[in-house]
């Protein structure tokens, strides 16, 4: 019960940002496509570049983003193929995208800071790079297919600066490059801006929401099944196999794997849906509702995990 109220007190400011985003778009006519552009093309690359430089990478740490990226990509293509005939519009594309990732950045990092030790939080932040890479490669491709051909989608991916920011950061990290101390606070502030605008984007995506058209029970049911059941079960299986067979990872990494699996749906579902005009209202409502569900879901699953 104590954990529930701690989470609730920390999450409330996130929902205030969502409300502010909605009000800015509805009443002050702030263009949500401009904010989405800033998140994907400017702030996202800067944040991932800084994070890649800020952690000591070893084989255990490297395993985490690889498994998260590969599993997310598998889930996305599986959902796209399995449920392709259930919608005649671009809903299936945003659904496949959101099933393959989670809100590891805007929601997950604050959650990790509440529940994990500081050195484990740094590991968690590094793993969020896998979600960002998924969202800007596999996820972008799947979402873009709603409006573009496969060739056009791939060309759009190659234009995304986030991929190159990660590669550059990784190369500099391996070669021992360190950022000057004077610029580190600047990048730290960018992380906060990225998180605030990301949550505001959920509210911006609700502009034009129509309950009859955008409250899709089938869409929500499938998204929540994969995010709230398939993801944690898969990570628990990885943890079980490693503890009893491979014995390669450690308890800190187990905690990060499980934490990654229980965050709500990704806010960038809305960002990409807006950029690509792929049912942003439906995506925004589904993502927002998943954040509300998580107020109860996360303490419950963490209690079960600790009991195991």
Automatic annotation (TrEMBL):
It comes from the Bacteria. Signal peptide: none annotated. The keyword DNA-binding does not apply. GO terms for cellular component: plasma membrane. It is a multi-pass membrane protein. The chain crosses the membrane at residues 6-24, 36-55, 61-81, 93-115, 121-142, 154-172, 192-210, 222-241, 253-276, 283-305. Keywords: Cell membrane, Membrane, Transmembrane, Transmembrane helix, Transport. One of its GO terms (biological process) is transmembrane transport. It is found in: Cell membrane. Belongs to the auxin efflux carrier (TC 2.A.69) family. This is Permease. It comes from Malaciobacter molluscorum LMG 25693.
